[in-house]
Amino acid sequence: MEITFKDKVVIVTGGASGIGRATALAFAKKGAKVVVVDWKENDEEVDLIKELGSEAIFIKCDVSKADDVKAMVDKTIAAFGRLDYAYNNAGIEGTQANTFDCTEENWDKTININLKGIWLCMKYEIPEILKQGKGAIVNCASVAGRVGFVGLPAYVASKHGVVGLTKTTALEYAKLGIRVNAVCPGVIQTPMIDRLTGKTKEAIAQFTGLEPMGRFGLPEEIANAVVWMCSDEASFVTGHAMTVDGGFTAQ
Ligand code: NAD
After folding, report:
1. Would you say which domain of life the source belongs to (predicted)?
2. 226: how many CB neighbours lie within 10 A of its CB?
């Protein structure tokens, strides 16, 4: 079955960079009208909208702020009149620190964006998707929603939270036509990973040394999983957290 999202509208948060950007492009290729949401707005986003074509818009929004998220969904409906799918992807890595050293500011910021942000997005997206009688949401978790990582307690807690929240919301809407899943990427070549490795040869070698495939994943490899989970090909898939990590968590 050819996957198509013709005449359908999708929100992609954190769509200005990395995995979100690749996923926005993947949805556009399948015919969707794409709403790129990010708290950054610069020339790169304008270029992305041009690349996405005439049926894409950019909305500036901080996903951790309820008023921003509500306004973002309202603007989506004002622009396209409907909402069918959402990929809630915006996230930050937070500052690296062990549980003892983690500051309250680091904890709050990471949890507020990565976990509260996903709850807020679903809170305002779901009533609009319900009006279509059918739709799907994918939330971005991580392999850090599967296993622990030393030095990232707030990040790991936020991503485990995303998996739990996804399962609960999936159960709430299973009979109402909305499927809710999560994707758990492994280490993916994006600006976030560049920040974590500092792009140094040693750090990159250390990270890839832990990878069964001996390489990082590509943003497009996550985008493909998200597109599939939203599509009718995945019509019986809900409450699932799909790990796409080149075998990392199989070790
Ligand atoms: P990235 O930094 O390249 O992109 C993240 C985007 O989210 C950026 O454009 C950023 O501006 C946006 N963003 C951050 N906070 C926001 C906020 N409050 N409101 C709106 N937009 C906000 O990172 P990425 O690697 O593409 O990460 C995307 C998602 O994938 C994140 O949730 C991340 O935790 C998750 N993830 C990434 C990896 C990886 O290895 N890259 C692995 C597992 C999970």
Report:
1. Bacteria
2. 29
Q: So which residues are the catalytic ones?
A: 155
Protein residue with its CA nearest to atom 6 in ligand 1: 14
- The strand ranges marked E within 128-188 are 135-140, 178-185
Ligand 1 pocket, residue 145 CB under 6 Å: no
Q: How far apart are CA 85 and CA 1, in angstroms?
A: 19
Angle CA(80)–CA(43)–CA(195) in degrees, nearest 5?
A: 105
Q: Is residue 139 within 8 Å of 166, Cβ to Cβ?
A: yes
* CB-ligand 1 contact for 28 (6 Å cutoff): no
Q: Could you identify the atom of ligand 1 that is nearest to the CA of residue 159?
A: 34
**Backbone angle region of 86, left / alpha / beta, with phi > 0 → left and psi within -120 to 50 → alpha:** beta
Residues 6+ apart with CB under 8 A from 131: 82
What are 222-236's pLDDT values in tens digits?
999 999 999 999 999
124: which residues sit within 8 A by CB, 6+ positions away? 69, 70, 72, 73
Kindly report the CA angle at 242 between 175 and 85, in degrees rounded to 5? 50
In this prediction the ipTM stands at 0.99
**What number does the ligand 1 atom closest to the CA of 143 have?**
43
Extract the runs of DSSP E, i.e. beta strands, from the chain.
9-13, 33-38, 56-60, 85-88, 135-140, 178-185, 241-244
